[in-house]
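Quick note —
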Amino acid sequence: MKELEAIQFVHGQLLNAPNFPAFKTGDTIVVTYRIVEGDKTREQDFRGDVIQIKGHGLTRTFTVRKMSHGVGVERIFAYSNPNIATVQVVKRGRVRRARLFYLRGLVGKKARIKELKRYNATTGEGQA
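Predicted structure written out below.
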């Protein structure tokens, strides 16, 4: 039991808790990533759908997929990566699975993820 506590202590010390908003599989997010080129640094946005979240602690990662000129591009980001400047949730998706690998085989409108509509009980209307 002491080994498990030691591992959890080390993970707690090494892992900088990221200040990301809560997002889940199916959400459309924009990841602003710092890129170092020689002695210059710049920030680049990667906008796409979260197709999976896996791992925990230091090894937790999320995969974002986007379409770029008709070609699917996927990128895996680690939660503990210090080069991630910000994560912004653009749209909440309504999905019934934790892994959306089936999107790789779909084209056009079939590859879309429906937006999650929330019902507001006080006003009686739905909102996006």
